Amino acid sequence: MKSKISKIIIFLFVSIFYSLDAESIDQFNFDVPEIEILENGNLFVGKGRGVIDANNNIVITADKFQYNKNENILNANGNVKVEDKVQNYLIFAEDITYKKNLEQIITDKNSKAIYNDGKIITADKFQYNKNENILNA
Description:
Layout: H1 2-23, E1 29-31, E2 34-38, E3 43-53, E4 58-68, E5 73-84, E6 89-99, E7 104-108, E8 111-115, E9 120-123, E10 127-129, E11 134-136
Antiparallel strand pairs: 1-3, 2-3, 3-4, 4-5, 5-6, 6-7, 6-8, 7-10, 8-9, 10-11
């Protein structure tokens, strides 16, 4: 009887820990030709043009990516295109930094935003706050 109870307890613990892990959502899905995973799985480096889906209707296309899992920050370089499928805008730049926890996108070099109503904003750098839907150039 003790053996059966201990098996049930072990099963419950394993089930709880497994379900907690299964419920965690990956912050980004990478679709790149080559990816390096460094620093014990905390740094992802994508090489070759690819796409990252941020699981919040943001899709980023670029030549190179670097994602710091601990800080939840994505850097993308080279012909970067950011598409927000909910707010219906496009951002183009040479480099971007996406601070996922703050829902903030910071661009650098040749930045351009195109909104659904056809408005185009160009600047060397700007900062977009997704939560507030505010772009500062």
